[in-house]
Amino acid sequence: MNSHSEDRRRGRGFTLIELLVVLAILGLLIGLVGPRFLGQLGGAKSKTAAIQIADLEKGLELFKLDVGRFPTGDEGLAALVRQPANARGWNGPYLKGSSIPDDPWGRPYRYAYTGVGEPEIVTFGADGAQGGEGENADVRNAR
Fold first, then answer.
1. What is the pLDDT of residues 28-57, one digit of tens each?
2. What does the alpha-carbon distance between residue 62 and residue 95 come to, in Å, rounded to a whole number?
3. What is the rounded distance in angstroms from the CA atom of residue 65 to the CA atom of residue 91?
4. Exposed, middle or buried, 82 (CB in 10 Å: 0-12/13-18/19+)?
5. In sequence order, what are the residues at sequence separation of 6 or more whose Cβ sits closer than 8 angstroms to the Cβ of residue 81?
6. Distance (Å, rounded) from C-alpha 112 to C-alpha 127?
């Protein structure tokens, strides 16, 4: 009876070879799927930045309709949530929430307006430096 119960115990477990094969298959799957998943995650941040910039642009247009001008460079995007001192007709806040969102990489959006044309809103991407490609590329509003 002892030999029968020992055979049963041996039959229940996995051999080292079987475990190594399973680990190798899992490693291959992670190697193939992982980069695609991470690539999609990175692209999502750029898309999120573009959507946030579009929302900021809409807020700027509403500000301009009420005040008659875009916020100055000194007033910046903060004028969308807090009334500037010389902004008659301000009827904000023009964004949901009480603050301007940071870009998906945790940095504030850059705002510039020269008084001519449309204002510029930009984030410098994952690396925080001007230019770049892929996730490091600048994301800006269409001017």
1. 888 877 777 666 655 788 888 999 999 999
2. 10
3. 10
4. middle
5. 92, 93, 94, 95, 97, 98, 99, 100
6. 20
Residue 65 has what pLDDT? 94
Residue type, 63: F
Tell me if 59 sits within 8 A of 70, measured CB to CB: no
pLDDT in tens, 131-142: 888 788 888 887
pTM given for the model = 0.68
The pair of structure tokens assigned to 101 is: 């969102």
* Alpha helices (runs of H) in the chain, residue ranges in sequence order: 2-12, 16-67
Type of residue at 60: L
Q: Which residue has the tokens 């490609």?
A: 133
- List C-alpha distances in Å: 132 to 12, 55, 72, 108: 56, 24, 28, 18
